[in-house]
Amino acid sequence: MPKQEKTNKIDCKLVMQELKENPYKQLNIAFSLMVIVPFLVFFYLLINKLFTLDVLIGNTGFILAIAFFISLCGYFIVYSILKNIFNAILTYAAQAKHSDQLKSTFVATVSHELKNPLSSIKINIYNIFAGLIGQVSQEQKNILGLCQSTIERMTRLVNGLLDLHKIEAGVIDVKRNRLNLAEISGRQIKEFQTLAGKKHIKIIKEFLDESLSVWGDEDKLSQAIVNLLSNGIKFTPENGTVTLRIYPDDKFVKLECIDTGFGIPDDKIGLLFNKFERLNATKEGTGLGLAITKDIVEMHRGKIFVESQVGKGSKFIIVLPRDLRSIRR
Amino acid sequence: MPDNIAKKILIVEDEKELMFGLATLLKSQGYLIIAANDSLFGISLAHKEKPDLIILDLGLPAGGGFYVLENLKNSVGTFDIPILVLTAQQGLDLEEKAKQMGAVAYFHKPFEPELLLSQIKEILNKSN
Predict the structure, then answer these.
(1) Beta-sheet strand order (sheet of B32-36)
(2) Contact at CB, A108 and B90, closer than 8 angstroms
(3) Which of A107, A126, A133 is facing B90, going by the closest CB pair?
(4) Measured distance CA(B125)–CA(B121) in Å, rounded
(5) Residues of B engaging A, defined by a Cβ cutoff of 8 Å
(6) A296 Cα to chain B: minimum distance (Å)
């Protein structure tokens, strides 16, 4: 059975915020009252050699009673601290649960409210375009074609936004399976051959170790590879190359997507993984692909880097841990 | 003349614009279309009309798509009717759940009309 993990984790800082006062300071005071004061009393009795029941009478009895009372105060403070901590954790958990429910509701509502009208528009335009409603002139077909492209762009945007929201909101389940990265990448390369062929771009496969595996979610890692390949082809001029390289690096696997495209200026590289950031507005896109890719890689405890030179091309490097233990860390 | 002239398809969908589009598309291929806009009406039509295929939305009023699926797959008269699920709902387990409950195909909205048509053709050929 594939193992699934929720990406949600308890945030200690948020729990601490719930506890208005710092529990560590309170604990120090409680510890002093509980332990140090009775110890000093015991030490006083010891040096005065007072070990009979007589100590309960007179001044020493009074001192012991005060020490006992102070010690009780210490225990009471500890009880209060523990009670507050439990309350804070329970409040946090309840809020987190409520917040998760709101996020899930948002995704479900957006899915339903946007995808249904998109489907209606798409199928009806398809029917008109196909001449099922009546004869359509070439000019009308051209306009309908524009509408179809817009619908496709809207669909990609809605899907991208939903993916990103689910990842960032932590309401996404991540399956953990041992995956052969070369196999997954090979499949995605095949999918892109036609698109690359149209621009006479050659996709080069450089898998230095075909048996390399990582622990992860196949669908999500495939999506990350698709995003890199798609960007590589989109931003590489005709007759260029896109190379997908996979190789081991100590406890990690590195996947590089190298293109001979336009390259990215140094001052724009930092913006690459921002949402809706489209560095080249002349190319079609939602500006969400790389943001999603980064989230997917980080979900797998990996890192993504980019090296680029204007006019020569770009290299996107994904580094993923090979071992499940390092993923859980 | 198309060989699917006698095939009857029930569409259970509450979005009337989508229903209209689907009906137009399928009628153009020679299918006979019947339609329901909520779960209970869908179940009732399936029992009464015994269609060759049901296209079922999941987000339906009066019970929901899973209720329809469960009901039809547990009824003697309708358990063998192939059901194709068409949904805008997102969820990792929805597709798995629908297929476990007996759906033969699962499409996410917005879908590609050509893909839907070829899938319908394949399902109906198999059920022959």
Answers:
(1) B32-36, B8-12, B53-57, B83-87, B105-108
(2) yes
(3) A107
(4) 6
(5) 15, 17-18, 20-22, 24-25, 28, 59, 88-92, 108-111, 113
(6) 16
Between A180 and A176, the more confident residue is A180
* Among candidates A111, A117, A127 on the partner chain, residue whose Cβ is nearest the Cβ of B90: A111
pLDDT averaged over every residue in chain A? 81
Beta-carbon separation of A132 and B25 below 8 A: yes
Q: Are B7 and B53 in contact (CB under 8 A)?
A: yes
Q: Given 3.60.21.10, 3.30.70.270, 3.60.20.10, 3.30.565.10, which CATH number is that of A177-328?
A: 3.30.565.10
Does any domain span residue B50?
yes
* Residue A176: strand pairing partners: A3
Do the interacting molecules here have an ipTM over 0.85? yes
Work out how many domains chain B is built from and give that number.
1
Domain that includes residue B69, residue range? 15-56+65-90+106-111
Number of Cβ within a 10 Å radius of residue B9: 23
Burial (Cβ within 10 Å: 0-12, 13-18, ≥19) of residue A224? buried
A&B contacts, CB < 8 Å: 67
Q: Which alpha helices (DSSP H) does chain A contain, by range?
A: 12-18, 23-31, 37-47, 58-129, 138-169, 181-198, 218-234, 266-269, 289-299, 324-328
Each domain of chain A, given as residue ranges in start order, spans 1-171, 177-328
**SS3 state at A82:** helix
Task: Residue A121: list chain B partners with CB under 8 A.
Answer: 17
Among residues of chain A, what percentage have pLDDT more than 70? 83
Please report whether residue B21 resides in a domain: yes
What CATH number did the domain enclosing B31 receive? 3.40.50.2300
Phi-psi region of A24 (alpha: psi -120 to 50; beta: other; left: phi over 0): alpha
